[in-house]
Specification:
Blueprint (H helix, E strand, L loop, with lengths): L64 E10 L7 E8 L3 E6 L8 E5 L3 E13 L2 E13 L13
Antiparallel strand pairs: 1-2, 1-4, 2-3, 3-6, 4-5, 5-6
Length: about 160
């Protein structure tokens, strides 16, 4: 029998509500570019507005870029980070492979050498000995020295 993930805790603060989506610490409603939470250091910069183009719940219509990288994953109630594997990345979301299931609605912090992001879990399913987690990007901070190209093209 497969254990289901524990229910997500109630959201502490929604993005743009004056509180950090990760820890709930209050912040000013208007933030400077590249703002970070003064309590947990999570990025608070929301993603640029993009047309939704009829996205179904939990489905990304932006191009996905395949990745295979180990990332650091943090949960609000845990002091130590977990390791996860980044499988793909798009302008609005990502897919991770993790060992234990994560509840839909849970907010995670994903850190790589290239970016730091807050992610809301939109789906989690058993895959082999682990779980495939799909997340929607809430906030994003790109590392200034990140190598590679980030492109945002609108038709």
């Amino acid at each position: 029998a497969t254990a289901s993930p524990p229910p997500a805790p109630p959201p502490r603060a929604a993005a743009g509500s004056g509180g950090c989506p990760f820890c709930g610490h209050p912040h000013a409603p208007t933030l400077p570019r590249d703002a970070r939470c003064s309590a947990c250091d999570s990025p608070l910069t929301p993603l640029p507005a993009r047309p939704r183009r009829g996205e179904a719940a939990g489905r990304r219509h932006d191009e996905r870029f395949a990745r295979d990288a180990v990332v650091e994953l943090r949960l609000p109630a845990e002091r130590l980070p977990r390791r996860a594997r980044l499988r793909d990345l798009s302008f609005t979301g990502l897919q991770l492979w993790v060992e234990t299931p994560l509840a839909v609605g849970r907010v995670l912090r994903v850190t790589t050498p290239q970016f730091d992001a807050l992610v809301s879990v939109v789906g989690c399913r058993k895959q082999g000995v682990g779980h495939s987690v799909h997340g929607r990007l809430l906030t994003l901070s790109l590392a200034p020295a990140a190598k590679g190209v980030y492109v945002d093209a609108q038709a």
